[in-house]
Write a structure and sequence with these properties.
Blueprint lengths: L12 E7 L4 E5 L2 E4 L5 E5 L4 E5 L7 E7 H11 L2 H9 L2 E3 L4 H14 L7 H19 L1
Antiparallel strand pairs: 1-4, 1-6, 2-3, 2-5, 4-7
Helix pairs in contact: 3-4
Length: 139
């Protein structure tokens, strides 16, 4: 199995990944999580992590990255700072049963990310919060 390592992006970036492949592992710090179709992985990019798919050529993932500053402001405003710290402190893995719903969140975020249309930032933030809510509600 070939190692497919993601470099640390920055101490100021967090990442949420949804895997669209089977087999392999994602290592966050020293903890290993299986790559299974549709699952979510919450990563603090200042920590060491690796994505190790069994078949690198067939590996696909949805990814959203936001600044730590954005996350901190959002969670402070909505009063769930502690829960978010628990999720991103050492990374978090969440098995997902309804992966198509999660995939739709990523697609909607992608479609409005660079948009100048009214309310596009609000739509991006709402879908991002829905992804965070899956993790917060599972704590």
């Amino acid at each position: 199995m070939e190692k497919y390592t993601e470099a640390r992006s920055s101490s100021n970036v967090i990442k949420i990944i949804q895997t669209l492949a089977e087999n392999g592992e994602i290592i966050i710090e020293n903890k290993s999580y299986p790559i299974e179709f549709g699952n979510l992985y919450f990563i603090n990019c200042s920590k060491k992590y690796s994505v190790i798919p069994a078949q690198k050529d067939d590996y696909l993932q949805n990814t959203v990255m936001v600044s730590r500053e954005f996350l901190d402001k959002l969670t402070e405003l909505l009063d769930f700072t502690k829960e978010t710290e628990d999720i991103f402190k050492n990374g978090y893995f969440l098995p997902v049963k309804h992966h198509k719903i999660i995939d739709d969140h990523f697609k909607k975020m992608s479609s409005v990310y660079n948009s100048e249309k009214a309310f596009s930032k609000a739509l991006f933030t709402a879908k991002f919060l829905e992804l965070l809510n899956y993790a917060v509600s599972s704590l």
